[in-house]
Design brief:
Distance between the termini: 42 Å
Number of strands: 6
Low-confidence stretches: none
Structural class: alpha/beta
Radius of gyration: 15 Å
Mean pLDDT: 94
Largest sheet: 6 strands, mixed
């Protein structure tokens, strides 16, 4: 029996990445120097904004999202930080099943456009562009709820200012 009374989703788009990977694959693209700084700033800002207790981080297995997720894990001390193929392929129903099966009340999804933007629209009805190193916050009264309340969207420039304070 699921005793959770709500679910907070934190959707993070990966930070800036290099144009090409050393092996020529999209999945191997690493964060650029700017992206490494963006990921660190995003993590520091979220540490100031969120209560990290019980946070889990799920990320696309692509290298740039893995690097972004690890920066978040270091600052937020997530209890779990694992790769999930559905975040790379855009299969929202697989991600929904995972959060419904998880005991976590806070789930951070580190992924890509256009999937993150589509998911925000599908879950909350809010359409917005999801820039690199930005964060979108959603809340549901229950993990199985089909509708989430849009709590806010933080662009990278605001996150950088928060991280610096």
């Amino acid at each position: 029996m699921d005793r959770r009374c709500h679910l907070e989703l934190i959707l993070v788009r990966h930070a800036d990445a290099e144009e090409h990977s050393s092996d020529g694959s999209d999945g191997g693209r690493r964060l650029s120097a700017l992206g490494e700084e963006q990921a660190a700033q995003t993590a520091r800002a979220l540490k100031k904004l969120l209560a990290p207790e019980g946070l889990v981080i799920w990320y696309s297995p692509k290298e740039r999202t893995r690097q972004t997720a690890l920066a978040l894990q270091v600052q937020l001390q997530a209890v779990e930080c694992i790769a999930m193929d559905a975040l790379a392929t855009g299969h929202l129903t697989q991600v929904q099943f995972a959060w419904q099966e998880s005991a976590a009340e806070r789930v951070c999804l580190v992924g890509h456009q256009p999937f993150l933007g589509d998911w925000v629209a599908d879950l909350s009805g809010v359409r917005l562009p999801i820039a690199k190193a930005s964060v979108t916050l959603l809340h549901a009264e229950h993990p199985t709820s089909p509708h989430f309340r849009f709590l806010g969207h933080l662009q990278g420039s605001l996150l950088a200012r928060l991280a610096a304070t």
